[in-house]
Design goal:
The chain has a 5-stranded mixed β-sheet, with helices on both faces. The protein has a 3-stranded antiparallel β-sheet with strand order 1-2-5, with no helix packed on it. It has a two-stranded antiparallel ribbon with strand order 3-4. α4 crosses α7 (about 235-240). The mean pLDDT is about 90. It is α+β, with helices and mostly antiparallel strands. The protein is built from 8 helices and 10 strands.
């Protein structure tokens, strides 16, 4: 068939795998944006002569192909490590899978040990950064919030704080053209939040209302409307970490 020696060896290896691998072999493929897996009967079946589209030889899967883990999670390609999805670039038909431990954990629905460790470290950092946020005076607190939004691509179209009665920041997202009111309070209460929400709803000139605070006697509750966003110290801490502002915060406490 015009193949080079290496190609002949590769084809023979694939044929041997197809015919000889046992019923305990896990078969996987990546198609239609998902990872699929199955087990197959040992016997190889000859395709029918009356169907030109049928394969010449095939093995029957046991229970069909699945694209969900044993815990019910959908195994989308986007949710998988590129170390595994890069196997989809293999140009021939059958190959062994690298990173088999990772593959089996995903199919079993088990947590990735490094991911668990990373999540624990991130949770500890978020707690520490939230404590830093609560230590800021109102000037540094307003500056932090301004930095978070600017690093997220929002552009301030108003002065920072100052004598504006109803709002501390007015922002615009230039890519999508949406705007936001931002009210920043070091310490606040449910009644104060509802007062500012009422002012925002009467004005109705912006797409979003952010009410951002780091301390309150009791957690503040708000409407479920997506245009209203409530940020307490923990949400601020997460945003500050994502924006790379932990060192800036640490320097404020020196």
């Amino acid at each position: 068939m015009g193949r080079k020696k290496a190609g002949v060896g590769q084809g023979l290896r694939e044929l041997q795998a197809f015919y000889s691998l046992g019923e305990d072999t896990l078969w996987v493929t990546i198609a239609d944006g998902h990872l699929w897996w199955t087990f197959a009967d040992a016997g190889v079946v000859a395709g029918g002569d009356d169907d030109a589209a049928a394969p010449a030889r095939f093995r029957r899967s046991r229970g069909g192909w699945r694209c969900t883990s044993l815990s019910g999670e959908t195994l989308t390609s986007r949710s998988l490590s590129s170390a595994l999805t890069s196997t989809a670039n293999y140009q021939m038909t059958i190959c062994a899978v690298r990173h088999q431990d990772y593959l089996l954990r995903r199919i079993r629905g088990e947590d990735e040990p490094l991911r668990v460790k990373g999540d624990l470290l991130l949770a500890e950092m978020t707690t520490a950064v939230a404590a830093m946020v609560r230590r800021l005076d109102w000037r540094d607190f307003e500056t932090l919030i301004d930095l978070i939004f600017s690093r997220g691509g929002w552009q301030r179209t108003s002065p920072l704080g100052g004598n504006q009665a109803d709002v501390d920041l007015i922002l615009r997202q230039p890519i999508i053209g949406e705007t936001a009111w931002v009210q920043i309070k070091s310490r606040t209460s449910q009644a104060e939040f509802e007062d500012y929400l009422d002012r925002f709803e009467r004005e109705a000139s912006c797409d979003f209302f952010f009410f951002i605070y780091h301390s309150a006697p009791r957690p503040i509750g708000g409407p479920t409307a997506t245009k209203v966003r409530l940020w307490s110290a923990n949400q601020i801490a997460s945003a500050a970490i994502d924006a790379g502002l932990v060192r800036w915060l640490s320097d404020r406490l020196m």
